[in-house]
Amino acid sequence: MSQRGRRTQEWDVRASTLARNTHNLIRSIVENLTVEPNPSKPFIALSVGDPTTFGNLNPPEQVLQAVRESIELHTSRGYGPAKGHQEAREAVAEYSAHQGNVTAEDVILCSGCSHAIELVISVLADSGQNILVPKPGFMIYKTLAEGLGIVIKYYNLLPDKQWMVDLDDLENQIDEDTAAIIVINPSNPCGSVYNKDHLNDILDIASRNRVPIIADEIYEHFVFSGNEFTAISSLSKDVPVLTCSGLTKRFLVPGWRLGWIIIHDRHNILGKEVRNGLANLATRILGPSTLIQRALPAILKYTPQSFFDEVILFIEVSGRFHETTIPNQAKMAYEELLRAPGLRPIMPQGAMYMMIEIKISHFPEFKNELQFVERMVSEQSVFCLPGRCFEYPNFMRIVLTVPEDILREACQRLVIFCKEHIDIGEKCKEIDNNIIPVTNETEFICDN
């Protein structure tokens, strides 16, 4: 047989550059853990950012009923417009009025918030350009950008100032190839909530340097008492803002994969090109689930405020405010972990996470926080995400949506683990500095 026309006589099928350069940092670290939990203790995962994992947080009946009714509609079974059905986009625009003047033409529906983030990165940045990402920050940006040849540059957050942005560092990272600044508020993994003054400081930097902002606000309104969520787009005078959000966290339905982009561009700086570009990119998957789109107007309109209050905010009883569920979980975990020598929990202001500093020098048998976390699994059967998942060594993140009794048990095991492994000299230094409570046990250890 003639070999004419054949490329080669051997098979040579390779993955694309995009596939080879795409890595999910969290998944790669978690999947490469080789330790087994202690079989004598039930395994507790404080690592999964899915509020539905333990079954203790569920959407209200109104949300479920909206989807039941959508199933009966013949219009929920076919393809929809790539940008989403008009009625659903109008509902998102009305729901998002706190962000500024929003119309349905400013809304693009997506398959979850991560898809929204992928679209806005892809529309603003080309290969060789860079986007600025907070450190610590959710690493989906790295996963989505690097496969496209887009460079990730990090700007620092300040743990001693409730994870506020290091403004000087942010501005110093900007160069002529910077395509966008990512602002995550409320924050994953930090649980910080920025006030208006701080958001205006960030906007001033973006304005001076003519850089648009990608606002990751999937945890919008997800704040604890004493804090207030403000959409950065509502404050912007001239900086274009592409806001990404969705149903995932606030409505407790991450598996339904319904997110959105809202374009805020008061002075038409982005022009038709970016709007058209987003519309073009949306055609790559032909829009999100039509079933959920048809239910979306009822979900956004009829979910009672009492649901949000009971799950993630606070309620008023007899004239006094009482924090519930997640804020209460945060307080409990914080107070328990203050008892752990060598740890420094940082109380969150919102979202569903807490970052905890591991004073690794106090634990000389561990070289880094990954070894610390692995040993916790093998001895105490508790797993927390190590800080390297967020480009932030010597910290770990816990999730606060775990049922109270399980979260308390996990924190108590962390305290035991730290007491068993901390260098005795360092433990006594902490006691002398009143960092941890002095007990008869610790006094005995230090005296001997």
UniProtKB/TrEMBL annotation:
Superkingdom in the source lineage: Eukaryota
Catalytic activity from the UniProt record: L-tyrosine + 2-oxoglutarate = 3-(4-hydroxyphenyl)pyruvate + L-glutamate
GO BP: L-phenylalanine catabolic process; L-tyrosine catabolic process
Named cofactor requirement(s): pyridoxal 5'-phosphate
Pathway: Amino-acid degradation; L-phenylalanine degradation; acetoacetate and fumarate from L-phenylalanine: step 2/6
UniProt keyword list: Aminotransferase, Phenylalanine catabolism, Pyridoxal phosphate, Transferase, Tyrosine catabolism
Modified residues (N6-(pyridoxal phosphate)lysine): K249
Domain Aminotransferase class I/classII large: 43-414
Family membership noted in the UniProt record: Belongs to the class-I pyridoxal-phosphate-dependent aminotransferase family.
Pfam families assigned: Aminotran_1_2
GO molecular-function term, one example from the UniProt record: L-tyrosine-2-oxoglutarate transaminase activity
CDD domains attached to this UniProt entry: AAT_like (cd00609)
EC number: 2.6.1.5
PROSITE patterns in the cross-refs: AA_TRANSFER_CLASS_1
Keyword Transferase: yes
Role played: Transaminase involved in tyrosine breakdown. Converts tyrosine to p-hydroxyphenylpyruvate.
Protein known as: Tyrosine aminotransferase
Subunit relationships: Homodimer.
Entries under SUPFAM superfamilies matching the protein: PLP-dependent transferases
